[in-house]
Design a protein that fits this description.
about 325 residues; six-stranded mixed sheet; four-stranded antiparallel sheet; 11 helices
Length: about 325
């Protein structure tokens, strides 16, 4: 395999999306004029379910062709130069399934061969390296069906990294994972994002972590925010309040405000919620420092979209698929 294609000009953005539009056969507009530029590091793609994130992921990965606009990965067009794009790309889908009866090392080795790594000695060394990199060396000979959910996600990362891609696209990586596994996964993304581009699509704000260099928010197919986490924080100054009160008064406040967190301790309830423009509940104070989740909720609330921004952290099941999700799957396999 010619590795020269894996050394593109560093001056060229790893990902460049310009005026991207995608309309499905039924007329549903999944993406409408999206622009995005990514260099080295971790980039977050936020938005509620149905915002168009998965459609964008599939276009980047050459699974579907866009209706209008252009997408380039390291200068290569995803529509016209698919072979070159795929050499540069690693993809971890939301559901990395199958392979249940195979051992971890067998899965990574097989996918390494499919990626063009045919020299046995070099392939073996690379397979062992990525398995160790994602923290699975101790279970390398364990069957996939014996792994925890978090281990399966890390196996997905290993197979995506085995051919040394310049860009890693990760779709909803922590759905269904427990808090400890989510933290471990965020640390892994921070580590491997030091020398490549990671585009991480999620509706769980906490997935992005401190390593995220820039965030884009999609809503109803449009990019409504692009900037650093610091810029998102600044946009929410004065938009979040804290209230320490009784459970009864906290329940009343929840009826009139979008609550981000509620903690009960010692008979008192501490609420942090999105403030309205005109008034706060009695006894509440505006906070100067917000979390990323609070900043996101405040931003979406200002757009009148707080309700769709509130997403459970639980695993999505088949019944939660939106119309656009079903259309994406149908077009990707047709």
């Amino acid at each position: 395999m010619n590795r020269a294609v894996l050394q593109p000009d560093e001056a060229i953005p790893s990902i460049k999306v310009h005026d991207l539009r995608h309309v499905y056969k039924g007329g549903h507009v999944a993406l409408d004029g999206v622009n995005l530029t990514c260099g080295t590091g971790v980039y977050g793609l936020l938005g509620p379910n149905g915002a168009g994130k998965s459609t964008l992921m599939r276009i980047l990965c050459t699974l579907i062709k866009p209706t209008e606009g252009s997408v380039e990965l390291c200068g290569f067009d995803v529509t016209e130069q698919q072979r070159e794009v795929r050499r540069l790309l690693g993809y971890l889908p939301q559901d990395f399934g199958g392979w249940r009866s195979h051992r971890v090392i067998e899965v990574v080795d097989t996918l390494a061969q499919l990626s063009g790594l045919f020299v046995r000695k070099a392939r073996r060394a690379r397979v062992e390296h990525v398995i160790e990199q994602v923290g699975l060396a101790d279970v390398a000979y364990r069957k996939v069906k014996q792994l925890s959910g978090g281990m399966v996600r890390r196996l997905g990362v290993a197979q995506a990294l085995v051919h040394e891609p310049r860009i890693l696209v990760v779709d909803e990586p922590t759905v269904g994972l427990d808090p400890e596994e989510r933290i471990r996964f965020r640390k892994l993304m921070e580590e491997i994002g030091r020398d490549r581009t990671i585009l991480l699509s999620t509706h769980i704000v906490a997935d992005l972590g401190a390593a995220c260099r820039e965030i884009s928010i999609l809503d109803a197919g449009r990019a409504v925010f692009s900037g650093s986490p610091a810029e998102l924080f600044r946009s929410s100054v004065g938009a979040v309040f804290e209230l320490i009160t009784s459970a009864e008064k906290a329940d009343l406040a929840e009826q009139n405000h979008e609550v981000v967190s509620r903690i009960t301790a010692g008979g008192q309830v501490t609420l942090r919620a999105i403030a309205s423009e005109d008034e706060l509940p009695p006894g509440a104070t505006r906070v100067d420092e917000t979390t990323l989740e609070e900043s996101y909720m405040a931003f979406m609330s200002a757009r009148g979209r707080a309700t769709v921004a509130r997403q459970d952290d639980e695993s999505l099941d088949a019944s939660s698929l939106t119309v656009s999700d079903e259309q994406e799957i149908e077009e990707a396999i047709s």
